[in-house]
Amino acid sequence: MKTVLITGANSGIGKALTIKYALEGYRVILACRNLPTANKTIEEIRKNQPAAHLACVDVDLGSFASVSRCVATLNKKHIRIDGLLLNAGIHIPYKNILTQDHCELQYQTNFLSGLLLTLLILTSESGRSLTQLVYTGSNAHKIGTLPFPSLFGFWYLYAVSKLDGTAAFFLLQKLVPTLDILIISPGGVQSNIHRYKLPILKVISKFIGKKTTAQATADYFYKIYNSKSRNEKYWYLGKSARPHTLCLDKEYQIGVWNRALAVFAPYLPSNNFLPLQQIRNFVGNFCAISYKTSFPRSPSDICNIVIKARSLGHKVHVVGKTHSYNDVFFCNQHIISLDNFKKLSLDPIRQRLNCGAGVTINEIAAYLDKKGFTLPFAGSFGGQTMVGAFSTSTHGFSKHGGVLGELVYQVTIVDGLGNIKIITDERELSAFRCSLGALGIIIEFELEVHKKDLAQYHVRSLDKKQLYTSINKLVATHDHIRFAINPFNKESVMVMTIDHFLAKKHSIAKVTMSQFFYLSDRTFHSLVLAFFRQLVQFRVVKKIIQIGLYFGSIEYSFPVFFSSNLFLKNGVVTRHVLLSQLLHESYNDPNCFNMSLAIAPEDWSRFDHHFNRLLSQFNSLGQVNYSSRFLGKSEKVLLATNFQKDVLVIDIQVSKKKSASLEFLKQLEKVATKDFKARIHWGKVFFAEYEAIKNLWPQKNFILFQRIKKKYDPYEIFSNPYSKRVLNI
Ligand SMILES: Cc1cc2nc3c(=O)[nH]c(=O)nc-3n(C[C@H](O)[C@H](O)[C@H](O)COP(=O)(O)OP(=O)(O)OC[C@H]3O[C@@H](n4cnc5c(N)ncnc54)[C@H](O)[C@@H]3O)c2cc1C
Fold first, then answer.
1. Does the domain formed by 3-263 have CATH 1.10.287.1080?
2. CA of 388 to the centre of ligand 1 (A)
3. Nearest to 486 by CA among 616, 583, 556
4. Which 3-state string (H, E, C) describes 486-546?
5. Contact, 111 vs 33, CB < 8 A?
6. Of ligand 1's atoms, which has the minimum distance to the CA of residue 394?
7. Distance in Å, CA 463 to ligand 1 centroid
8. Looking at residue 520, what is its pLDDT?
9. Is the CB of 377 under 6 A from ligand 1?
10. Which of 296, 333, 316, 404 is CA-nearest to residue 683?
């Protein structure tokens, strides 16, 4: 039998709800300030329903200590609550009464104590099965947002209590998604809420607005709650409605929440609900609420966080630099950042680099560059952590693999039991190379590095049709390939190749631009770039470039040291004006959704036709371009996009401002994963769920991944909604 606890249950809507829930077969706990009246109510209900399961518990919502005692009683009596109906409310116009907790009485009764009661139940034995919550709101909350509050003196304090209550329960819904929260504003009801009004106001409210009976209100509360097709959270007069926008504003919600919790913090068992933060990713297409990120300083700090989380049944997730385009780094309980883990130490003889988890690719590249070493694979953006890149098995392009995670030889982790473990076993490493933060917390790792050598960078424009036929040859003959559809002319493609110079014995045939240009002063270069950007705004300039790129077979090559540093922060790519426009800048554009799909190189022409056909159905999107990089197979990474096969990773950028963008990406992904067996990129936008994803990777890889997960994280502390959705763990 399910149990519901109803506050304010001995009169008005609360009493009607008690009758309704008892009739529907629930056990009802009447949480009331006045126990004799509550007992009378029970007797009265039993006259009609002798078998009703009813009990009462003492609570005065004007006192935090009383709320705390109430929950202690529930726990002592081992009462488990399945549903909580926060119905109690008071309205005392023209009076500003302070409680013993020094809070305004309406604010405490209508909001603060309800929230405290919920949090205390949620964090104790009694709340283990709590899945339903109804907060009785009021559409009068909108008055609380109006200027000149004194004009509305008689409504204002009540309105603010309901405004903040609505905002806080909307936020609670995000923090505890397993709890189904409804906020119902009943409108005018014949209830006891009017009992403290002046006689004249009682008369006025009697004649203003239609009044429903309490029983009819309770019936529709019950109906709304149990309707199967209901998604909406806010209801007014029996219909789904919109609360004032302030209740949905994240900053406002966090402010209300943190202030409320600061007031009743001494009554909370731990400070798990405080303070909160808004967390968003780098490009700003994901934004949510979580507890404040913590910054542990040592491995033992991390172990303690994990052990504590385990004891509370909470989740922990590591966030890198939030460069992922989705919620892969998010968890609404404990988010930790390893920014303090900045170790970098090179063993030049073994060609191994030891790194802390907080180190970014840029930092690694700069460190290696100084020491005459480099990463063997090219990356193109260095702002993220190395762990983030290999945890999402992303980044890099090379014929010899390419995913940066392949360079990792050893990881040190904190596992789900809070123990530190060093992993060198190749099969286990292959899973950690795509941990998505779901297998364990990587605190340190060892990377393979190479000595710096000369490389030849080559840029040319090719007719698309030429590339259709020559793509396999290009892939076979170059170390690194990247290309982008010419944004000025959809029929031509800009192709960049990089070859390790000494290894390949290439001749420097066409050095048409001096090395100086590429390695010149950054400030000067930024100016050129800014100027170029302005210039291409003009249609005439655009046309000239278009003609130039189409008819002229633009081709230049230049030798530089192959260095990941050159490639990234001070990189050739950023220094090359045109290429940076085509290949690099779009990744940084916070106005773009980024999606990557990995397909077989020989499928590229078919993909290109499909892409253009689909795009023509989305007229409002205008021109959308994509760029591609070639990745050799990387069998060392269990869930790499290029496991067992060479792939082209197609990076598509679509404007966030256009409303059809997501639908376009959705449809593109659907066909690509079906017809091209395209694999998705974990760090970017995608829509597929576990069942669809499972078909794209070998089944045995998934099984191995799950097995290793069980070994290192038996209590699923590192799982979050993301890993559930994409890996079913
Ligand atoms: C501007 C931009 C450019 C990009 N360019 C490319 C590109 O050229 N090629 C490419 O392939 N990808 C690219 N990406 C995608 C990006 O490389 C990945 O999303 C990468 O994972 C982000 O790393 P991060 O440090 O920001 O990690 P986050 O996004 O913060 O986290 C990523 C994942 O790593 C996990 N994680 C982080 N640290 C740890 C740890 N210590 N232990 C366990 N798990 C951990 C997190 O829990 C999360 O699951 C780009 C993204 C952006 C925004």
1. no
2. 4
3. 583
4. CCCCCCEEEEEEEEEHHHHCCCCCCECCCHHHHHCCHHHHHHHHHHHHHHCCCHHHHHHHH
5. no
6. 11
7. 34
8. 33
9. no
10. 404
Residue keyed to tokens 């490389």:
455
Tell me the CA distances in angstroms from 275 to 24, 173, 655, one per residue in order: 39, 16, 34
Token representation of residue 354: 């030891």
CA of 338 to the centre of ligand 1 (A): 14
- With a 6 A CB cut-off, is 318 part of the ligand 1 pocket? yes
**Is residue 516 packed enough to be buried (19+ CB in 10 Å), middle (13-18) or exposed (0-12)?**
exposed
Question: Which atom in ligand 1 lies closest to the alpha carbon of residue 341?
Answer: 41
CA 255 / ligand 1 centre spacing (Å): 30
Which atom in ligand 1 lies closest to the alpha carbon of residue 385? 25
Nearest CA to ligand 1 atom 5: 381
Confirm or reject: Cβ of 395 under 6 Å from ligand 1: yes
Q: Does the CB atom of residue 468 touch ligand 1 within 6 A?
A: no
Question: φ and ψ at 338, to 5 degrees?
Answer: -100, 35
Q: What was the pLDDT predicted at 349?
A: 96
Q: For strands 441-448 and 352-356, give the pairing.
A: antiparallel
> Residue 335: its pLDDT value, please?
94
Q: Would you say the CB of residue 236 lies under 6 angstroms from ligand 1?
A: no
Structural tokens at position 566 = 């050159």
Minimum-distance ligand 1 atom for the alpha carbon of 441: 42
Ligand 1 centroid distance, CA of 383 (Å):
9
The ranges of the chain with pLDDT < 50 are 503-526, 551-552, 566-577, 580-582, 585-586
Q: What is the pLDDT of residue 229?
A: 64
> Can you give the residue ranges of every domain in the chain?
3-263
Spatial strand order in the sheet of 344-347 = 344-347, 352-356, 441-448, 408-414, 420-423
pLDDT tens for 455-471 read 777 777 788 888 888 88
255 and 263 in contact (C-beta within 8 Å)?
A: no
- Taking alpha carbons only, the member of 518, 574, 564 closest to residue 366 is 564
Close Cβ partners of 415 (under 8 Å, ≥ 6 residues apart): 306, 421, 440, 712, 713
282 lines ligand 1 (CB under 6 A): yes
- Sorted by sequence, the CB contacts under 8 Å of residue 50 that are 6+ apart come out as none
Q: What are 53's strand-pairing partners?
A: 27
Residue written as tokens 């209508």?
Answer: 110
Reference 133, options 165, 90, 109, 106; nearest CA is 165
In terms of C-beta density within 10 A (0-12 exposed, 13-18 middle, 19 or more buried), how is residue 98 classed? Answer: exposed
Residue 437 CB less than 6 A away from ligand 1: yes
Number of H helices, E strands in the chain: 27, 27
Residue 400's pLDDT is: 85
Nearest CA owner, ligand 1 atom 52? 323
Q: Name the residue with the closest Cα to ligand 1, atom 40.
A: 442
- Name the token pair of 453: 């050598």
- Give which of 329, 328, 359 is closest to 343, Cα–Cα: 359
The contacts of residue 97 (CB under 8 Å, 6+ apart) are 104, 105
| Ligand 1 atom 33: residue of nearest CA | 388
**The pLDDT of residue 276:** 81
β pairing state of 626-631 and 480-485: antiparallel
